[in-house]
Amino acid sequence: MIKVLGLDVSKSSVSACLLTDKPVQPRQFYYDCHFLKLEANASGIRELLQLQPDVAIMEPTGNNYSKLWGTHLARAGVEVRLVGHKELRNYRANHLALPDKDDDADALALACYYFDYHQDPRRFVQIRDEAIVKIRELVLRLAHLNRVQSPIINRLRQDLAWQFPEVALVKSVRGASGEVPLLWGWLAGVRPSKKYDALYAQTVGLGITATVRQHAQRLCNLQTEEFNIEVELSQLLSDSRFEKYRAVFTRFGFGTRLQSVIISQIYPIEAFLNADGKPEVRIRQGRNSKKSTKRHLSLRRFQKALGIAPSLESSGDKHKSKIIGGSDLCRKALWQWVFTRIEPKRSRLANHIGVTLGGLLDTEKAAGRPVKLVRMKVASYAARLLFRELVRCQK
Questions:
Q1: Which distant-in-sequence residues (6+ apart) come within 8 Å of 348 by Cβ?
Q2: Could you give the CA distance from residue 301 to residue 363 in angstroms, rounded to a whole number?
Q3: Among the listed ranges 79-93, 150-164, 348-362, which one has the minimum average pLDDT value?
Q4: What is the rounded CA–CA span in Å between residue 190 and residue 201?
Q5: Cα–Cα distance, 327 to 283 (Å, whole number)
Q6: Please, what are the domains in the chain?
């Protein structure tokens, strides 16, 4: 007899539902069941582990909330599986007919989900190994630091416009070995510069305030943290398991950050393939044409993971497609890669990848299509090429 624990994670607690089999009438069971409310403290963790489940089912609610519970369960030898938000929502409403969404209903639905789909691994979000989990954490931390820095830099430039206008628009970047940007380091008093000393001596500005120097110091600290994370990411990516992946990424001109983002979403590539290790392709009749049409299911799942697989929405005479699901961070990173590596002709890759993608972009732009749409189309086609290259390199 297997003990399955459904856990709906909140900010500082979880709602827990322990089952040994799926209820015959889940809706009635919901009203009769005694759900547990466990707090995120020593007592709550102890009570959780005393349940001694064999399997725990949760939603992927981010590193900040589910990590605490998932880690303690995993250390106790409990198998932890994750169910996607969309899948759980549809399952709870359409299969179980549970009442309006609440924590207890989600906990029950999670436990029931296991009994219905435990033999189909693709029904669950991929559980990544330790290195992939760490890479994803660092990638998310870098994205956070990037968001934090932008308003600080904007505030600094606005203040320098009247305090030291000669440098207000200077683009100062971090050194290759991790030195903080010269301008911000000089303002913070951590990097000397005769150039800025001389400029400041002749400035027409009203003088640098303590607030600006504090902002510069804060920015330097963030830049140092950012550099340390990038070093750790490089060390994690040096794992021999990623060697073939990185060789492919190099041909696409992906930097360390983009490599990290993609690895965190698609490793291992075998998870997208069939039991024979080949891309899954099915022949189906087209809804409109009624002709036999190839459905590249593995490729579709791969694009979905990268956040660039459009979904068709039709209603009456209206037909439109939009991107739903996948990694927003990965989608944005690929869009930026197209913008900086493919669109500028001087930066294009001197191989068949650069030629193919660059030609597609130029053709689409020449046809007068919206630039944002063109960039996303190129990113989608790049994902197709990437999938083929990754599959090929595993042989």
A1: 341, 342, 354, 355, 358
A2: 27
A3: 79-93
A4: 19
A5: 28
A6: 4-123 (3.30.420.10), 132-237 (1.10.287), 253-313+323-393 (no CATH)
How many other β-carbons are positioned within 10 Å of the β-carbon of residue 385? 16
Of 72-81, 97-106, 155-164, 373-382, which has the strongest mean pLDDT? 155-164
How far apart CA 110 and CA 137 sit, in angstroms, is 25
Chain centroid to CA 77:
27
Longest dimension (CA), the chain: 82
Q: What does the alpha-carbon distance between residue 263 and residue 185 come to, in Å, rounded to a whole number?
A: 33
Encoding tokens for residue 196?
């800025």
Residue range 171-226, pLDDT digits in tens: 999 988 889 999 999 999 999 999 999 999 999 999 999 999 999 999 999 999 99
User: How distant is the alpha carbon of residue 6 from its chain centre?
Assistant: 25
The answer, yes or no, to whether residue 314 has pLDDT greater than 60, is no
* Pairwise CA distance, residues 16 & 37, whole Å: 6
Coil vs helix vs strand at 281: strand
Going through 118-236 in order, the beta strands assigned E by DSSP cover: none
